[in-house]
Design brief:
The protein is mainly alpha-helical and 219 residues long. The chain folds into two domains: 62 residues, Winged helix-like DNA-binding domain superfamily/Winged helix DNA-binding domain (Arc Repressor Mutant, subunit A, Orthogonal Bundle); 151 residues, GntR ligand-binding domain-like (Four Helix Bundle (Hemerythrin (Met), subunit A), Up-down Bundle). Helix content is 74%, strand content 5%. The chain contains nine helices and three strands, in the order H-E-H-H-E-E-H-H-H-H-H-H. Strands 1-3-2 form a three-stranded antiparallel beta sheet, covered by helices on one side. A hairpin with a 3-residue loop joins strand 2 and strand 3. Helix 1 crosses helix 3.
Amino acid sequence: LAGRAYDIIQEKIITMVLEPGQHVDEKQLVQELEIGRTPVREALLRLASECLVEAQPNRGFVVKPLTLQSIKAMFEALHILDHGAATLAIHQNTSAHLALMQDAQQAFEQAMEKNDALSLVWTNHAFHMHFARSCGNSYLIRALENVRCEANRLAYLSFGEKTELAGDLLEHYQSVCREHWQMIEYLERKDLSGLKKTIETHIRSFQRRIVIYLTSSIS
């Protein structure tokens, strides 16, 4: 039951049904999900460990706010961690991870054809976590999973139609696909320079879209 509650609440957070900074009404979730309070509380504690919600004294849980400062820090962490993973991955046997990255990318393209933003988030997450695991360092993998779990809200904005970013959506999808396949190619060739340059382009493109969205929303 806690797993089901986690999946549903996580989806509400990623799709902004539960908005950044919003108080999480545990009683309402218990009624809506028709389960006990304990599974809901366990789900929220798990989401807190992933930095998607925050526990606040006498308030229960709130959805973690999104600010320009926190987003800047998130992208800085992605940049450092992904580059670190790339540096280690080229010295590993990555054949199994490359196959999983290809599978995830094909699933991403199927979601793209359906314009399914949530499926794009999950398949994109899977792709990047298969890449992370290719480095073979459990500390880096955990750190990247934490950052990417939190970044999935931003990915939903980036891939969604209902934002100021929707106009160039097809071009964005195509760029993401191209960069994913380049990451696979460079990792397979163990070309660290090419891999790092592609990661850099990929992260900066993602960051640019989110900053555009946030600044237009604030104004």
